[in-house]
Amino acid sequence: MVQLFYFADLFGVAVFAITGALMAGRKSMDLFGVLVIAVITALGGGTLRDVILNNHPVSWIRDDTYIVVASLAAVGTVLWVQLTQPIHEKGLLIADAFGLAVFTVIGTEVALQHNVPLSTAVIMGVMTGVAGGVMRDVICNEIPLIFRKEIYATACIAGALAFIGLRALDTPPWLDTGIAMLVVLFIRLAAIRWHFSLPRFHLLDRD
Amino acid sequence: MVQLFYFADLFGVAVFAITGALMAGRKSMDLFGVLVIAVITALGGGTLRDVILNNHPVSWIRDDTYIVVASLAAVGTVLWVQLTQPIHEKGLLIADAFGLAVFTVIGTEVALQHNVPLSTAVIMGVMTGVAGGVMRDVICNEIPLIFRKEIYATACIAGALAFIGLRALDTPPWLDTGIAMLVVLFIRLAAIRWHFSLPRFHLLDRD
Amino acid sequence: MVQLFYFADLFGVAVFAITGALMAGRKSMDLFGVLVIAVITALGGGTLRDVILNNHPVSWIRDDTYIVVASLAAVGTVLWVQLTQPIHEKGLLIADAFGLAVFTVIGTEVALQHNVPLSTAVIMGVMTGVAGGVMRDVICNEIPLIFRKEIYATACIAGALAFIGLRALDTPPWLDTGIAMLVVLFIRLAAIRWHFSLPRFHLLDRD
C-alpha cells in the first residue's frame, strides 16, 4: 500500500514536471530553465507545505528520487517534442488530474499528522496540489491559470474534505485514500469534459 | 490588552483580504482565485516572517480564525460589489493604514522576542506589513505598487523604530504599542492626504 | 581562511545588491523599492536555501552585517548613477561572476553539512547562486534572464560538482573551495566572452 502510494506520488511528480517543461518551452527557455521550471512545478507545492508546517526534512531533501524523476520527465518532454511527436493534450490533462488527486490526498494527510485545525488541513491539501503550478505560472510571467479556467482547485477542496470525513469515520487507509482520490479525479474530469467553471468576479480597473 | 490586540490583528487580516479580493476582481479571477489572493494578501507577510524566523507554528496553522476571517472578508467583498455598492476608496485606504500599523507592530514584537539584531527587527516589522501586498501584486502580474506610489513602507520603518525605541525605554506595553501604531497611521495618512512620495530612481533600459 | 571567506561572501552580497538596485532603477522604483529589490537579490537565494534545509538562524537574522552591506551597496548605486557616472557593464559582469562563485560554494557546503543526497547538494549550490536573481526578475515582472541568456546556472552546477568531488577526496578546504570557485568563474567568464548559450526549447503557444 505504502509502496503503491510512493509510486503514485512519483507519477504525479513526473506529470507536473511535464506541464512545467511545456510551459518553459512556450517561453523559449533554455535547457536549464526547462529543468528548473519542471522541478518547481513538480515539487514546489509540497515544499511550501512542508516549510509552513515545519515538516522537515522536505521530501526531496531526504530522497533524491523525486529530483531525478522530475528531471527525467523534463528531458523526456524536450526530446519527445523535438522528435516532432505532438503532445497528446487530452492524455496530459487526464494524467494531470491523477497527479492532482495524489498530491491533494498526500498534502491533507501530512497536515492531519501535525494536528492542525481542519480548515488548515484542507488548505494544505489544496496547496500541495496547486501551488507548484502557481509558481510555474508566476515565474513564467502569466497570471495563474487555475484562478481563471475550469474548476481545478475546487476538486482539491472536495477531495480534501472527503478524506478528512472518511478518516474521522476510521475507514481503512486504502478506502479513504481511494475515495478521496476518486472525488478529485471525478470532479476534475467532469469539469474538463463539460467546461464547468466557477463564476468570475469582474471589477473595472479604475487606476 | 492581549484580547484587544487580537481583534486589531483580525481587523488587519480582514482589511488586507479585502484589498486582495479587489485586485483579484480587477484581474477577473474566479471565486477560488479571489479567496486565494485574499488569504495570501492577509496572511502572506506574517507567514513569511514566521518561516524565516523559524517561529512555528505559524499563526493560522494554530488558530483557524485567521483563515475564516480572511475568507469571509473576501466573500463579503464580492457580494458587496455585486450588489453594485461602490467601494468607498477613501475608507478602504484608512482601514488599510490601520491594518498596516497593527501588522508592523506585531511583526516587530515577534522579531524582538527572538533576540535578533535591531535592523532585523525593523525588517521583520516591515515584512509583516508589506510582504502580503507584494505577493498579491506579483501573483497578479503587477509590479508591486508599494515600490512606486506614496510613502507606504517608510511608515512601517518609522513605526518599527518607534516601537523598538520605546521598548528599550521600558515603557508599558499599551504605550509603546499605541505610539508605534500612531506613528505608522499618521505618516501613512499624511502621505495619502498630501501625496508624499519618495524620490524615484530612473534608469534607462539599455537591453 | 574563514575570515577571508566571510569577506568574499559580503563582496558577493554587495555585487548582487548592485544588480538588484539597477533593475529597480530600470523599473523606476522609489528608494524603498530599490532597497528591497537589492536586499532580496543579495540575500534571497541563501534565505530560501536555509528555510528549505531548516538551517536556522538564517545568516542575516544572526548577523546584521549582511543587511547593512546590501543596503549600502544599493544606496551607493543610486548615488553613483545620479552623479552621471556610467555603469561599467563589463566590470559588473565580472564582479557578478565572482559573487556567483562564492555563493555556489557556500550553498553546496551548507548542504553537505546537512548530510543530504549529492544531487540535493548541487541543487542547493545552484539555488544559493541564482534564486536571488530569479526573485528580483519575478518581482520586477520579467521572465528570469538566467533561463534564457548565456550559460549561467550551468557554471554553478559544474562548480558544485567540482566542490563535492574534491571534498570526497579529502583535499584541504582552501583547495576545494578555491578550485570550485575557479570552475564557476572560468565557465561564466568564457560564456560571457564568447556568448556560449544552452540550446533553447521552443514550443508554439497553442492557447
From TrEMBL, chains A, B, C:
Its main location: membrane. It is found in: Cell membrane. It comes from the Bacteria. GO terms for cellular component: plasma membrane. Belongs to the UPF0126 family. Keywords: Cell membrane, Membrane, Transmembrane, Transmembrane helix. Pfam families: Gly_transporter. This is Membrane protein. The lineage of its organism: Bacteria, Pseudomonadati, Pseudomonadota, Gammaproteobacteria, Pseudomonadales. The chain crosses the membrane at residues 6-24, 31-53, 65-81, 93-112, 118-139, 151-169, 175-196. The keyword Transmembrane applies. It comes from Pseudomonas taeanensis MS-3. It is a multi-pass membrane protein. Residues 7-80, 94-166 form the Glycine transporter domain.
